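User: What would this chain look like folded?
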Amino acid sequence: MDEKELQQRKNRLVELADMAYTQNRYTYTPFLGLAEQQAYYAVEREVAYAGVNMEGGTPLCERKMIRFGDPGYEESFPITAVRIFPKAPKFSENLTHRDFLGSLMNLGIERDVLGDLFVEAQKEQGALLFCHENIADYIVEHLDRVRHTNVSCKRVEGEIAVQSAEPERISVTVSSPRADGVISKVYNLSREESRDLFNNGRVFINGIQTQNASCQLKEEDAVTVRGFGKFIFYGQTGVSKKGKDRVEVGVFGKQ
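Assistant: Here's the prediction, encoded as structure tokens.
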């Protein structure tokens, strides 16, 4: 995101906050990715007076809507979950996140009405998509194929359980829990390549973009590296014979 686009997004957030406050009602953004959410963090204090909440559908979601307003009544976020599943599970392909998202985009759907999409751990279960409620029925009616697999869709009612694959727990040895060092070990990069990721704005810790390669990771920090994936930092588990820290992380597959 360049400076001009960042400023436009910041201006729009300030407008939505002012609208919510002056009209005493809720206002919403579209779904925002991690990079787009940085516009909010840049004006967080400026818009706090309006009342702010963020929601993606479940705590695991990275793409979120921002809701401004505190009008004295409760209103649900306009987010709906749609389950996408193969009509003939026995013959289903091993579909990826990209396959499902590509089929949705081919329907002419804009990305900002789509939240996170979780591919189920078992291929016959399909995927779970969070989307704007206004587009849910269109998806249910029109999405009937992902790659060569015929699929069906239905809205998910009630409590939503995300059954995406569990992260792979691995142990790596580092000099310290510095973010650049851990990232280089997790993704088999040189320290210089790891630092370049920070300089290029591709590293997010707990949803917030950071260029501080030397920051120390804490237990349960969620680290997203655009183009590589996401992992959870579980903390130190021991010390190697050479006096280095042995730490454990949970690595999610690249989406």
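The first helix runs from residue 3 to 23. If you want, I can go into more detail on any region.
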